[in-house]
From TrEMBL:
SUPFAM superfamilies: Clavaminate synthase-like. Residues 6-260 form the TauD/TfdA-like domain. This is TauD/TfdA family dioxygenase. GO terms for molecular function: dioxygenase activity. It holds the Pfam family TauD. Keywords: Dioxygenase, Iron, Metal-binding, Oxidoreductase. It comes from Actinocorallia aurantiaca.
Amino acid sequence: MIRTAALRPSLGVEVTGIDDWLDRAVIDQCLEALKWRGVLLVRGADLDDETQLAFSRRIGEVVNVNGSEIFTVSLDPAKNVAAEYLRGTFQWHIDGTTDPVPIKATTLTARHVAAVGGGTEFASTYAAYDQLPEEERERCRGLRVVHSFGASQRLVKPHASDREKAFWDTLPKQEVSLVWERADGRCSLVIGSTADHVVGMDPDESRALLDGLLEHATRERFRYTHEWRVGDLVMWDNTGMLHRALPYDASSQREMHRTTIFGEEAFT
Protein backbone atom coordinates (compact mmCIF):
# COMPACT_ATOMS: atom_id res chain seq x y z
CA MET A 1 0.00 0.00 0.00
CA ILE A 2 1.39 3.39 -1.01
CA ARG A 3 1.68 5.98 1.74
CA THR A 4 2.54 9.67 1.40
CA ALA A 5 3.79 12.39 3.73
CA ALA A 6 4.30 16.07 2.97
CA LEU A 7 7.90 17.28 2.77
CA ARG A 8 7.04 20.98 3.19
CA PRO A 9 3.73 22.81 3.61
CA SER A 10 3.88 24.30 0.11
CA LEU A 11 5.42 21.46 -1.86
CA GLY A 12 6.87 17.99 -1.91
CA VAL A 13 5.70 14.53 -0.91
CA GLU A 14 7.62 11.47 0.29
CA VAL A 15 6.22 8.21 -1.02
CA THR A 16 6.68 4.82 0.63
CA GLY A 17 5.28 1.36 0.02
CA ILE A 18 5.90 1.04 -3.72
CA ASP A 19 6.23 -2.66 -4.61
CA ASP A 20 5.68 -2.58 -8.36
CA TRP A 21 7.09 0.49 -10.08
CA LEU A 22 5.30 -0.27 -13.33
CA ASP A 23 1.81 -0.86 -11.94
CA ARG A 24 -0.69 1.53 -13.56
CA ALA A 25 -2.29 2.40 -10.22
CA VAL A 26 1.14 3.30 -8.82
CA ILE A 27 1.91 5.49 -11.83
CA ASP A 28 -1.44 7.27 -11.53
CA GLN A 29 -0.93 7.96 -7.81
CA CYS A 30 2.58 9.29 -8.48
CA LEU A 31 1.29 11.59 -11.22
CA GLU A 32 -1.49 12.89 -8.98
CA ALA A 33 0.99 13.56 -6.18
CA LEU A 34 3.36 15.24 -8.62
CA LYS A 35 0.64 17.50 -9.99
CA TRP A 36 -0.40 18.88 -6.62
CA ARG A 37 2.87 18.66 -4.67
CA GLY A 38 5.47 19.29 -7.39
CA VAL A 39 8.26 17.11 -5.98
CA LEU A 40 8.08 13.37 -5.27
CA LEU A 41 10.73 11.58 -3.16
CA VAL A 42 11.29 7.86 -2.68
CA ARG A 43 14.12 7.26 -0.21
CA GLY A 44 16.31 4.26 -0.98
CA ALA A 45 14.42 3.31 -4.13
CA ASP A 46 17.67 1.80 -5.49
CA LEU A 47 16.41 1.69 -9.06
CA ASP A 48 18.76 0.43 -11.71
CA ASP A 49 18.83 2.26 -15.06
CA GLU A 50 16.46 -0.21 -16.68
CA THR A 51 13.76 0.21 -14.02
CA GLN A 52 14.17 3.98 -13.82
CA LEU A 53 13.79 4.18 -17.57
CA ALA A 54 10.77 1.83 -17.64
CA PHE A 55 9.10 3.88 -14.88
CA SER A 56 9.84 7.11 -16.76
CA ARG A 57 8.30 5.73 -19.95
CA ARG A 58 5.08 5.12 -18.04
CA ILE A 59 5.08 8.84 -17.14
CA GLY A 60 5.55 9.95 -20.76
CA GLU A 61 7.90 9.97 -23.73
CA VAL A 62 11.53 10.08 -22.59
CA VAL A 63 14.00 12.52 -24.13
CA ASN A 64 16.96 10.93 -25.91
CA VAL A 65 20.18 12.92 -25.38
CA ASN A 66 23.04 12.03 -27.71
CA GLY A 67 21.77 8.49 -28.19
CA SER A 68 20.87 7.75 -24.57
CA GLU A 69 17.71 8.15 -22.51
CA ILE A 70 19.79 8.07 -19.31
CA PHE A 71 21.80 11.26 -18.78
CA THR A 72 24.74 11.16 -16.36
CA VAL A 73 24.91 14.28 -14.17
CA SER A 74 28.53 14.73 -13.16
CA LEU A 75 31.17 17.48 -13.12
CA ASP A 76 33.71 14.91 -14.31
CA PRO A 77 34.35 15.55 -18.06
CA ALA A 78 35.16 11.85 -18.48
CA LYS A 79 31.56 11.04 -17.50
CA ASN A 80 29.83 14.02 -19.08
CA VAL A 81 31.20 16.02 -22.00
CA ALA A 82 28.94 18.94 -21.00
CA ALA A 83 30.32 19.04 -17.44
CA GLU A 84 31.46 22.65 -17.83
CA TYR A 85 27.92 23.84 -18.53
CA LEU A 86 26.46 21.91 -15.59
CA ARG A 87 27.87 24.57 -13.29
CA GLY A 88 24.97 26.65 -14.56
CA THR A 89 22.66 24.30 -12.65
CA PHE A 90 23.93 25.89 -9.41
CA GLN A 91 21.55 28.75 -10.27
CA TRP A 92 17.77 28.58 -9.85
CA HIS A 93 16.25 27.56 -13.17
CA ILE A 94 13.47 25.79 -15.08
CA ASP A 95 14.59 23.37 -17.79
CA GLY A 96 13.54 24.11 -21.36
CA THR A 97 12.60 27.78 -21.11
CA THR A 98 14.00 28.32 -24.62
CA ASP A 99 11.83 25.49 -26.01
CA PRO A 100 8.21 26.08 -27.11
CA VAL A 101 7.12 23.14 -24.94
CA PRO A 102 9.21 22.74 -21.78
CA ILE A 103 10.13 19.45 -20.16
CA LYS A 104 7.17 17.94 -18.29
CA ALA A 105 9.07 16.15 -15.52
CA THR A 106 12.49 14.86 -14.54
CA THR A 107 13.61 11.84 -12.50
CA LEU A 108 16.95 11.76 -10.75
CA THR A 109 18.56 8.80 -8.99
CA ALA A 110 21.64 9.12 -6.79
CA ARG A 111 24.50 6.79 -7.68
CA HIS A 112 27.23 8.61 -5.71
CA VAL A 113 26.78 11.58 -3.40
CA ALA A 114 29.09 14.38 -2.33
CA ALA A 115 30.43 14.40 1.22
CA VAL A 116 29.97 18.17 1.32
CA GLY A 117 27.29 20.03 -0.63
CA GLY A 118 25.58 18.59 -3.68
CA GLY A 119 22.01 18.74 -2.42
CA THR A 120 19.17 19.77 -4.71
CA GLU A 121 16.73 22.56 -3.92
CA PHE A 122 13.23 23.04 -5.30
CA ALA A 123 10.89 26.03 -5.12
CA SER A 124 7.24 26.21 -6.15
CA THR A 125 6.36 28.95 -8.64
CA TYR A 126 2.68 28.01 -8.20
CA ALA A 127 2.80 28.82 -4.49
CA ALA A 128 4.96 31.87 -5.10
CA TYR A 129 2.43 33.31 -7.57
CA ASP A 130 -0.52 32.55 -5.32
CA GLN A 131 1.16 34.36 -2.41
CA LEU A 132 1.97 37.55 -4.32
CA PRO A 133 -0.10 40.60 -3.33
CA GLU A 134 -2.96 41.13 -5.77
CA GLU A 135 -1.45 44.36 -7.11
CA GLU A 136 1.81 42.53 -7.86
CA ARG A 137 -0.06 39.74 -9.66
CA GLU A 138 -1.86 42.38 -11.73
CA ARG A 139 1.46 44.01 -12.57
CA CYS A 140 2.95 40.72 -13.74
CA ARG A 141 0.01 39.62 -15.87
CA GLY A 142 0.56 40.58 -19.47
CA LEU A 143 4.32 41.03 -19.12
CA ARG A 144 6.54 38.95 -21.37
CA VAL A 145 10.09 37.82 -20.72
CA VAL A 146 12.90 36.78 -23.07
CA HIS A 147 14.75 33.65 -21.91
CA SER A 148 18.18 32.66 -23.18
CA PHE A 149 21.03 30.26 -22.48
CA GLY A 150 23.40 33.24 -22.38
CA ALA A 151 21.55 34.82 -19.45
CA SER A 152 22.25 31.77 -17.29
CA GLN A 153 25.86 31.43 -18.43
CA ARG A 154 26.65 35.07 -17.66
CA LEU A 155 25.88 34.29 -14.02
CA VAL A 156 28.45 31.49 -14.09
CA LYS A 157 31.04 33.34 -16.20
CA PRO A 158 30.64 37.09 -15.65
CA HIS A 159 34.01 37.69 -17.33
CA ALA A 160 33.46 35.43 -20.32
CA SER A 161 35.39 36.10 -23.51
CA ASP A 162 33.80 37.80 -26.51
CA ARG A 163 34.02 34.48 -28.32
CA GLU A 164 32.02 32.71 -25.60
CA LYS A 165 29.39 35.46 -25.54
CA ALA A 166 29.10 35.32 -29.33
CA PHE A 167 28.51 31.56 -29.15
CA TRP A 168 25.82 31.96 -26.49
CA ASP A 169 24.09 34.52 -28.70
CA THR A 170 23.78 31.97 -31.52
CA LEU A 171 21.61 29.72 -29.36
CA PRO A 172 17.80 29.97 -29.41
CA LYS A 173 15.98 32.59 -27.34
CA GLN A 174 12.30 32.58 -26.51
CA GLU A 175 9.73 35.14 -25.41
CA VAL A 176 7.11 33.82 -22.98
CA SER A 177 4.52 35.17 -20.56
CA LEU A 178 5.88 35.99 -17.14
CA VAL A 179 2.69 34.50 -15.68
CA TRP A 180 1.93 31.13 -17.26
CA GLU A 181 -1.84 30.60 -17.20
CA ARG A 182 -2.16 26.84 -17.25
CA ALA A 183 -4.74 24.69 -18.99
CA ASP A 184 -6.01 23.47 -15.59
CA GLY A 185 -6.61 27.03 -14.39
CA ARG A 186 -3.57 27.38 -12.16
CA CYS A 187 -0.90 30.04 -12.69
CA SER A 188 2.86 29.84 -12.26
CA LEU A 189 5.80 32.19 -12.74
CA VAL A 190 8.30 31.54 -15.55
CA ILE A 191 11.47 32.93 -14.00
CA GLY A 192 14.99 31.81 -13.09
CA SER A 193 18.52 32.16 -14.40
CA THR A 194 17.49 32.07 -18.07
CA ALA A 195 15.19 35.10 -17.66
CA ASP A 196 17.12 37.77 -19.55
CA HIS A 197 14.77 40.76 -19.59
CA VAL A 198 11.15 41.89 -19.55
CA VAL A 199 10.06 42.99 -23.02
CA GLY A 200 9.66 46.75 -23.36
CA MET A 201 10.78 47.56 -19.82
CA ASP A 202 13.69 49.73 -18.74
CA PRO A 203 16.69 47.37 -18.21
CA ASP A 204 17.25 48.33 -14.57
CA GLU A 205 13.54 48.06 -13.76
CA SER A 206 13.36 44.74 -15.60
CA ARG A 207 16.29 43.31 -13.66
CA ALA A 208 14.88 44.52 -10.35
CA LEU A 209 11.49 42.93 -11.08
CA LEU A 210 12.92 39.56 -12.16
CA ASP A 211 15.37 39.42 -9.26
CA GLY A 212 12.65 40.39 -6.79
CA LEU A 213 10.29 37.69 -8.07
CA LEU A 214 13.05 35.08 -7.88
CA GLU A 215 13.89 36.11 -4.32
CA HIS A 216 10.21 35.86 -3.40
CA ALA A 217 9.73 32.47 -5.09
CA THR A 218 12.74 30.90 -3.37
CA ARG A 219 11.87 31.92 0.18
CA GLU A 220 12.03 29.10 2.69
CA ARG A 221 8.25 28.65 2.85
CA PHE A 222 8.15 27.84 -0.88
CA ARG A 223 11.32 25.73 -0.88
CA TYR A 224 12.44 22.17 -0.20
CA THR A 225 16.10 21.16 0.10
CA HIS A 226 16.91 17.52 -0.58
CA GLU A 227 20.04 16.03 0.97
CA TRP A 228 20.86 13.01 -1.13
CA ARG A 229 21.52 9.46 -0.02
CA VAL A 230 22.68 6.80 -2.44
CA GLY A 231 19.64 5.14 -4.04
CA ASP A 232 17.22 8.05 -3.56
CA LEU A 233 14.81 8.81 -6.40
CA VAL A 234 13.38 12.29 -6.84
CA MET A 235 10.92 13.30 -9.54
CA TRP A 236 9.70 16.84 -10.07
CA ASP A 237 7.21 18.83 -12.13
CA ASN A 238 9.62 20.92 -14.18
CA THR A 239 6.83 23.23 -15.36
CA GLY A 240 6.05 24.57 -11.90
CA MET A 241 9.22 24.02 -9.87
CA LEU A 242 12.43 25.99 -9.94
CA HIS A 243 15.41 23.85 -9.01
CA ARG A 244 19.15 24.12 -8.48
CA ALA A 245 22.05 21.98 -7.35
CA LEU A 246 23.97 23.17 -4.30
CA PRO A 247 27.68 23.60 -5.11
CA TYR A 248 30.01 20.65 -4.62
CA ASP A 249 33.59 19.80 -5.50
CA ALA A 250 34.06 18.11 -8.86
CA SER A 251 36.43 15.63 -7.22
CA SER A 252 33.61 14.35 -4.96
CA GLN A 253 32.50 11.85 -7.66
CA ARG A 254 28.88 12.93 -7.18
CA GLU A 255 26.91 11.16 -9.89
CA MET A 256 23.20 11.23 -10.67
CA HIS A 257 21.31 9.40 -13.40
CA ARG A 258 18.58 11.48 -14.97
CA THR A 259 15.63 10.92 -17.28
CA THR A 260 13.60 13.76 -18.73
CA ILE A 261 10.01 13.50 -19.94
CA PHE A 262 8.82 15.44 -22.98
CA GLY A 263 6.38 18.24 -22.19
CA GLU A 264 2.71 18.34 -23.11
CA GLU A 265 1.75 22.00 -22.60
CA ALA A 266 3.29 24.91 -24.49
CA PHE A 267 4.23 28.19 -22.87
CA THR A 268 1.76 31.02 -23.39
